[in-house]
Design goal:
The complex is a heterodimer of chains A (156) and B (321).
Chain A lengths: L14 H17 L9 H20 L5 H13 L12 H7 L9 H10 L8 H29 L3
Chain B lengths: L1 H12 L2 H10 L3 H7 L8 H7 L1 H13 L5 H7 L3 H31 L11 H11 L4 H17 L4 H13 L14 H24 L9 H29 L7 H13 L5 H19 L12 H8 L2 H8 L1
Helix pairs in contact in B: 1-7, 5-7, 8-9, 9-10, 9-11, 13-14
Chain lengths: 156, 321
């Protein structure tokens, strides 16, 4: 238990994967009849935003990352869809040890981070930081993709 | 007098074997062994070392109350030299203790990465053995030492603890103070390991977030990380708003989107036609590496074929509109 795990894996797929997932979700959105016509852009904005996050979660890790699982579960709940995830072995022990992992000085910051990162409530501090690192990488990738898209569409 | 002189000289010489032989040479051997050293029957030297406190107690008992038992009387009847010897015999036991302490500290120093030495006395074995029997021995030995120096450091800030841990890692040994047996050993060890884990991940995050290298102090670094995450999320929201406003203006044809995507994604330039040739190769490579949809059409780029494979019915419906 006292051994440190040396390789912390925060690999993130290439931009193309994110682009493909996002474009696919956008085309799915466009298929909906009520998408393009209404003048109310707020709903569209929300839908696009949600599609962006969901596609990012799928592209980045699927169900292998805690934050992506939490994101997908949250999105599915809003759509009233039931999503099933394969059970991970470590889940129960994580819950049991939660109380032992929250004593340090930086607890307030960790709390703020938990509010920001999806699924942060159930993680210990060290796991939280791992997930944050991966989350930051994926977010920046998604932002790049969306920026390219917007730039590509704008001049026309 | 000569005997006592010998005693003192040899006791400071430090050889415990000499003490045993001296005891015998005093001709006290039998009574002494019966009275004071019954547990030493096993093996003279080592037994002597194993039980210096009891031996000292026994010796002291003899010096204090010589008349307590007939055996004591028999012993004291032997004459002044025995009393002297008893008086000085306490010395050897003390010196034995001192030797043990010295040897213990040197052993502990050498014990840095070696597991399981039996000569380490009990009050340290509580600490080092659970550390040493772990799978990652070196790490845990160091962590045990670090923990001790932490307890001495009495600093509550995380930064200082980090510094002391780094210093101890560089030194080949740690200055060890005599410690009491501590009940929270495994807890403090685990705490130490956990603290290291968190620090490692903090370093990782520092590398990710631009501008975090210069900052000292974990609270500020965490602040910076939180700001970065918030800014990224705000950017996503901004871009999605822009996309939503852009969408209805354009005939959102996936062909044109992908065509324009080529340049912007690959090089940041807008050479759509030139990039169309490049894109399929790069896309196929990355796609293969991630086991996503099969976009394999290396030499050709028939868009309809691609769309049929990748997007399936959706594209047909779009074109149908």
């Amino acid at each position: 238990m006292a051994s440190a795990d040396k390789p912390i894996n925060t690999d993130v797929p290439e931009k193309d994967v994110f682009a493909l997932h996002f474009l696919q979700s956008l085309s799915n959105l466009r298929r909906q009849n009520t998408f393009n016509s209404p003048e109310k852009t707020n709903d569209r904005v929300k839908k696009i935003k949600k599609a962006a996050y969901v596609s990012m979660a799928r592209a980045a890790g699927g169900t292998n990352r805690l934050w992506s699982r939490a994101l997908l579960r949250r999105a599915a709940k809003e759509n009233n869809k039931i999503v099933r995830f394969p059970r991970r072995k470590k889940r129960v022990t994580c819950l049991r040890r939660r109380s032992n992992r929250r004593d340090p000085v930086e607890e307030e910051e960790a709390e703020r981070l938990r509010n920001l990162v999806p699924g942060g409530g159930g993680m210990g501090t060290s796991k939280l930081m791992e997930e944050t690192a991966h989350y930051i990488k994926c977010l920046s990738m998604q932002v790049k993709v969306m920026q390219c898209l917007v730039d590509g569409l704008a001049p026309k | 007098m000569d005997l006592t002189g010998e005693f003192e000289a040899r006791s400071y010489g430090g050889g415990a074997t000499r003490e045993a032989t001296r005891l015998e040479s005093l001709h006290l051997g039998d009574e002494f062994r019966q009275l004071a050293l019954p547990p030493e029957n096993a093996g003279g030297f080592t037994a002597l070392l194993e039980l210096p406190p009891t031996q000292a107690v026994n010796l002291l008992r003899f010096t204090d109350s010589p008349s307590s038992s007939s055996q004591a009387a028999a012993v004291t009847g032997i004459a002044p030299p025995p009393l002297h010897s008893y008086g000085t015999l306490t010395f050897p036991s003390n010196s034995v203790l001192m030797e043990r302490a010295a040897r213990f500290s040197t052993d502990y120093h050498q014990n840095g990465n070696v597991s399981g030495t039996s000569s380490v006395p009990s009050n340290s074995s509580v600490k080092t053995e659970p550390a040493e029997t772990d799978s990652s021995q070196a790490v845990n030995n160091r962590s045990g030492k670090r923990k001790d120096s932490d307890k001495k450091a009495k600093s509550s800030t995380k930064k200082k603890r980090n510094k002391s841990s780094e210093e101890n890692e560089k030194l080949p040994y740690v200055h060890v103070r005599a410690r009491r047996g501590q009940a929270t050993d495994s807890h403090s060890l685990a705490e130490r390991a956990r603290r290291e884990k968190i620090n490692a991940r903090m370093k990782l995050l520092q590398e990710l977030v631009p501008g975090c290298d210069k900052i000292q102090g974990t609270a500020l670094v965490l602040d910076e990380i939180i700001n970065h995450v918030q800014s990224l999320q705000r950017q996503v929201e901004m871009l999605s708003m822009r996309l939503a406003s852009v969408n209805p203006r354009i005939d959102f044809n996936l062909d044109t989107i992908l065509a324009s995507e080529n340049g912007s994604l690959m090089d940041g330039s807008f050479n759509g036609t030139a990039m169309q040739v490049v894109w399929p190769h790069q896309v196929t490579e990355t796609e293969q590496s991630y086991h996503h949809r099969q976009l394999q059409q290396p030499q050709q780029w028939p868009f309809d074929g691609l769309n049929q494979r990748a997007w399936g019915k959706e594209e047909d419906q779009d074109h149908g509109q």
